[in-house]
Design brief:
By secondary structure, the protein is mainly beta.
Length: about 120
C-alpha cells in the first residue's frame, strides 16, 4: 500500500515556474513507477509525465515537453514535477500516481494522491 500526498501548487503568472512534490509513504516507493496527471475544469484527466522506478526512463505529454521535468528521489520517497514557462492552459488540478507497471494510461496506475491546484494567470 502506498499513500501519496502532493504539494507545491499555487497561483503563478504566465512564464513562471512551480515545482510540485509528491511524498509517498511506505518502503515500497522505489518499486513503483510514478506519474503526474492533470485535470482542468470540464475536461478529462490527462497524462503529463511519468518516470520509471529507477528514474532512468521518463516520458512526457507533447504539450509539456521541453517545459516540464519529472524526477524522483527514492531515498526521500518523493517524486517531483518541475514546471517552467507555464501557460494559462496548464491550469488544472495536478495528481501524482504510482504504478507497478508504469505507462501513460490512467488505468495503469494503482495509487493516487488528492491533487494540488495549479493556476496560471495571463
Amino acid at each position: 500500500q502506498v499513500q501519496l500526498v502532493e504539494s507545491g501548487g499555487g497561483l503563478v503568472q504566465a512564464g513562471g515556474s512551480l515545482r510540485l512534490s509528491c511524498a509517498a509513504s511506505g518502503r515500497t516507493f522505489r518499486s513503483y513507477a510514478m506519474g503526474w496527471f492533470r485535470q482542468a475544469p470540464g475536461k478529462e484527466r490527462e497524462f503529463v509525465a511519468a518516470i520509471s522506478w529507477s528514474g532512468g526512463s521518463t516520458n512526457y505529454a507533447d504539450s509539456v515537453k521541453g517545459r516540464f521535468t519529472i524526477s524522483r528521489d527514492n531515498a526521500k520517497n518523493t517524486a517531483y514535477l518541475q514546471m517552467n514557462s507555464l501557460k494559462p492552459e496548464d491550469t488544472a488540478v495536478y495528481y501524482c500516481a504510482g504504478s507497478i507497471r508504469g505507462g501513460i494510461g490512467l488505468g495503469e496506475y494503482d495509487y493516487w494522491g488528492q491533487g494540488t491546484q495549479v493556476t496560471v494567470s495571463s
